[in-house]
Every structure is written in C-alpha cells, then in structure tokens.
Amino acid sequence: AADLGAGLDGIAAVQAARAARDPGALVLAVLDARRASLGLEAPAQELQVVRVEQDSTGATRVRLSQVYLTIPVEGAELSVQVDAGLRLRVVSGRYVRTPAGADGRPAIDAAAALAAAARAAGISSDRLRNVTPVLVWYPDDRGVVRLAYRVPVEADLIRREQVFVDAKTAAIIA
C-alpha cells in the first residue's frame, strides 16, 4: 500500500510528528495537508484522536472522531493504520465534509428534545427524567448534517434506541 503521507516531508507539522515518532500527530498533520481533497476545512480542529493502539507487528492504529464547532458528528469516526516506519497505509471509516456555515446553536432546549423523544417512543416523559440528551451533528445518507439532540430511550425491557430530535424544529430525524 502507498504511503498517504508521501511527498509531505517539507511540511513542518509532518516533520515534527515524524521526528517525535508520534503517530497521532502524524495522522493529523497528513490529513491537514490533504484537507482540500478530503473536503475538510481544518482537520486538526475537526478530528480528535480518540485512541492510539500498537499491535504485535509494530503497526499502529490511530482512531479519530469528528467534531464541528466542538459538537460531535454522529457516527463519524476514522481509523488510520500507520506502519512501524511511520507511513500511513490505510484509512477507513466515515466522516462528513466540513458543514461550513452550519449554525451550532439549538433553537430548542434539552427538555423539549426529551419531550419530543418520549412522544416518538410512545412513553411518558417521566421515564426520561434521568436521561441527558447530547447535542450532535446528524448526517443523513447524503452527508448533509443537521443539528440534533441524541436521546437514548428505553421504551421497554427489550426496546432500546437512540432518538434524534432536530435541535431547530423538534422534529424526529431518526
């Protein structure tokens, strides 16, 4: 497999990460250098290293999650394999292009999101009194994101689901 960081050794952040033998910093530096082709405005701010794990072959897997305006993008996670020679070999996972111009301010509060989720699940909102909705960007199948609250709902002993409530309109997204 080709080195996804090939040709980037003249970039200071790539040089510094290689010199420090820091796979997480290297991945962020390479993705930042490739931002135009990825459709990300600022990968170093939009991607956060969640975990770095080394295997028995000396390869390292760097796991990243995507955020925008400090709000997590639901389901947007990347895994990057870095070999022992600090070459980026494989990138897998899912992310969305930077939702430039998206407004990260909800129009409804968490209580309204809980009420909407309870209605959608057909349960009393009292059953959700210990639940804390999480504000997220929810991408649809085309990669278009909407600001939403993720609300974990246990409708009964068997049915557990995540309900996504549009943070602007209180409509159920999923």
Assign a percent range to the helix content.
10-25%
* Secondary-structure-derived class: alpha+beta
Distance, first to last CA: 38 Å
Spatial strand order of the main sheet:
1-2-3-4
Largest sheet: 4 strands, antiparallel
C-alpha Rg, in Å? 19 Å
If you average the pLDDT, what whole number results?
Answer: 93
Low-confidence stretches: none
Helix-strand string? HHHHEEEEHEEE
What does the model show?
The protein has 5 helices and 7 strands, in the order ααααββββαβββ. A 4-stranded antiparallel beta sheet has the order 1-2-3-4. A 3-stranded antiparallel beta sheet has the order 5-6-7, with helices on one face. It has 174 residues and is of the alpha+beta class. It is 23% helix and 34% strand. It is elongated. It has helices at residues 12-20, 23-33, 35-38, 43-46, 110-121, and strands at 47-54, 60-68, 71-82, 88-94, 134-139, 145-154, 160-166. The two termini are 38 Å apart. The model has no long low-confidence stretch (mean pLDDT 93). A hairpin with a 5-residue loop joins β6 (145-154) and β7 (160-166).
What is the element layout, followed by pairings?
Blueprint: H1 12-20, H2 23-33, H3 35-38, H4 43-46, E1 47-54, E2 60-68, E3 71-82, E4 88-94, H5 110-121, E5 134-139, E6 145-154, E7 160-166
Antiparallel strand pairs: 1-2, 2-3, 3-4, 5-6, 6-7
Helix pairs in contact: 1-2
Characteristic key phrases:
four-stranded antiparallel beta sheet, alpha+beta, 174 residues, single chain, three-stranded antiparallel beta sheet
